[in-house]
Amino acid sequence: MATLDLENICKSFGPAKVLHDIDLAIRDKEFVVFVGPSGCGKSTLLRIIAGLEEATDGRIVIEGRDVSREDPVDRGISMVFQSYALYPHLTVFENIAFPLRVQKMTQQDVNQRVNRAAEILQLTDKLTLKPGQLSGGQRQRVAIGRSIVREPKVFLFDEPLSNLDAALRGDMRVELSQLHRELNATMVYVTHDQVEAMTMADRIVVLNGGRVEQFGSPMELYHHPATKFVAGFIGQPN
Ligand code: ADP
Ligand code: MG
């Protein structure tokens, strides 16, 4: 069970208010996509959920527990970033194992978790290679593997595919949807790409200027857009 409730989240940077009263109830095992134009507050909201940024007001509640004051590592949340910073001098195995080394986990447990993640991500035959020997898609999978081994309850993705070319992006969309089914985890995925949102999401949150325009299934948004903005954004060809 990992429900994620965002309760009246507000965020200001100095005089600039970038998030206005974000109030969303995300269900257990749901794949929710936050979509909206550049600068609308997507990354800021994700960073607040992860605990990398503090909200000016409001609460983050996971499985009914208020985690707003908890350290990022205690929240049971893992974030995959846009620019996947792998360690070039470490093998794929050690890159994936890295968060477990920090936790001082036993070698046996490390082996078990890394091998399981590699299996899910089809990296089993790449574990002894270095990041420089991998394709862009494989490198992105290593970054995701690093999240999986921590066995988080909630995964956060901030535009994880935006550095990949169009063909690879399509493949990775399918892979991430499969990953969601296999891991049975709650996932929050940020993108500015409507196609990604429409094809991957159980439900979509459309953000504009730090406000929620609509929260609903792709079909609801498509057939019953709540605002002109949603209609334009979803209908707009990519
Ligand atoms: P998105 O991810 O949707 O492109 P961001 O969350 O990165 O948008 O940014 C939302 C707004 O907040 C932007 O106007 C941005 O300039 C501003 N912002 C983000 N981080 C900071 C910061 N650390 N200090 C000041 N302003 C910031
Ligand atoms: Mg962003």
UniProtKB/TrEMBL annotation:
Signal sequence range: none
Q: Which ranges carry the ABC transporter domain?
A: 4-234
- Keywords linked to the UniProt accession: ATP-binding, Cell inner membrane, Cell membrane, Membrane, Nucleotide-binding, Transport
- Keyword Protein transport (UniProt): no
What GO molecular function annotation could you give as one example from this UniProt entry?
A: ATP binding
GO CC annotation terms, alphabetical: ATP-binding cassette (ABC) transporter complex, substrate-binding subunit-containing; maltose transport complex
- Return the similarity comment: Belongs to the ABC transporter superfamily.
**What is the recorded name of this protein?**
ABC transporter ATP-binding protein
Species of origin reads Salibaculum griseiflavum
Full-protein positions shown: 1 to 238 of 365
